[in-house]
């Protein structure tokens, strides 16, 4: 049985004015898996992430999405193909309500994005679907609250609902648990599990333990290069990973 | 929810009273040319606000569209003898044409760089206005005849043209209001709120910005054309960067991102200028003070602060 690779990058390299942030990174993300890209600060995780979502252009290397070369496409283009990202700092539309936030994501596919001559009341027909998505992330009681007034964790939930509204094939999450307390982390982990049903998730994370139960595959990045890959067990027992995370002394111990 | 419909009833009543007052104005012995030029600037500020308030783009070159519209409309009536409605439409087209070009270049950059590009390009348009033979150089185009509406109704009398201006003004404001409260407007607001997120949702942000920029420039051209007919002159004043600055002040004073803010702002600034000029007070001094007070004390502008106050009371 062959495993389908939905997102792949080959020998991806990115240099900023002579500094190599990402070096020869080759990554394969299996369809339907939850894949984590982890590494200490400055390992190049976010750079890889931005390369995959086209917010940065690679210096060299190729990116394949569903077998198609997307190395030179624009970020909005690959979003339309079904590769949708989230942001490290919660990305919501602060002065729109929770419902409107999700609805904006629905507008484009519904063909209701360029009508400048129509009343925005026509958007109300998207409300049912938008409300479903909002309910799915347990924000039903905040439906008409402006996003700016939500707590950090709820903004995350809203962001995931907005992302799911596009019905993406692959979701890319940039440190979804950053800056959260334990309880909130559990909630977001549950949300990601739920979102991953029938989809592929690639997430960037700082913390190895957070992704231990959640992810099928973990790729560890250090100084722009991949140093280990596999399930949690393989990766966490890898000497180089331990060294990267705990310093060389812990690795010797 | 109940309170918000309550306030919207108030807003509706205010609009109706406003429109009635505007219709009644010629019979109330208010100097009509002043009211008309106020409406032109109000339409100008409202068009400018489409960009600043709903896409978050600060253009520092909108005088190019205002002046461009004024020159083209003036030239069309004066030299070609076109009727006023065609001239005003041509003014709008001139604005749109300039807007597509300037907008295309400016939206490649963000923030202050965007503003600087619009300023630089509008200075180029200003230079053309100074040098080109058809603009009349320092003298400008004057006197511009007001012509006959549809070739039939003469607009030479102030009362006659007043209703033409009023009709264009109301139509223009309605059109802008419609754009802001449309599916397209909703996407614009999303871009204003968080551009990278809008991109990640698959929106071609550049295209939306360019369309909005062009719309804003076109409506500004209409306002400029209208102004040329009202004051019967199209001059360099219409196209200088000071005019670009003035429209920013009007919008900020009235309230960025509100429908009626720019109208109120334009009315206040123009009234002050008119009043102060007649008593010999140096206008720029007061304008400067207002600007500083606005930024320091009420950043949301008059209408913006009012809306904020009402919505706080609601919760």
Overview of this protein structure:
The complex is a heterodimer of chains A (253) and B (315). In chain A, the strands form two sheets. A six-stranded mixed sheet of chain A has the order 6-7-8-3-9-10, with helices on both faces. In chain A, 35% of the residues lie in helices and 25% in strands. Chain A folds into two domains: 5-90 and 170-252, Rossmann fold; 93-149, no CATH class. The longest helix of chain A has 15 residues, at 182-196. Chain A is of the alpha/beta class and 253 residues long. In chain B, strands 1-2 form a two-stranded antiparallel sheet. The A-B interface holds A 53, 55, 74-76, 79-80, 84-87, 91-96, 100, 103-105, 107-108, 112-120, 122-123, 162, 166 and B 178-179, 181-187, 189-190, 193-194, 196-205, 211, 215.
Integer count of domains of chain A = 2
The strand line-up of the biggest sheet of chain B is 1-2
Q: Compute the gyration radius of chain B: what is it?
A: 19 Å
Helix content of chain B: over 70%
Our estimate of the beta-strand percent of chain A is 15-25%
The multimeric state of the shown protein is heterodimer
Give the CA-based shape of chain A. Answer: globular
Q: Say what the CATH topology of the largest domain in chain A is.
A: Rossmann fold
The coarse overall form of chain B would be globular
The biggest beta sheet of chain B reads:
2 strands, antiparallel
> Could you give the distance between the termini of chain B?
10 Å
Portion in helices of chain A: 25-40%
User: Total number of helical segments of chain B?
Assistant: 13
Give the CATH class of the largest domain in chain A: Alpha Beta
The parts of chain A where pLDDT drops under 50 for at least 5 residues are 248-253
Lateral arrangement of strands in the main beta sheet of chain A: 6-7-8-3-9-10
Q: Report the radius of gyration of chain A as a whole number of Å.
A: 19 Å
| CATH superfamily membership of the largest domain in chain A | P-loop containing nucleotide triphosphate hydrolases
Greatest interface and its residue counts? Answer: A-B, 36 and 25 residues
Written as H for each helix and E for each strand, in order along the chain, the element string of chain A is EEEHEEHEHHHEHEHEEHH
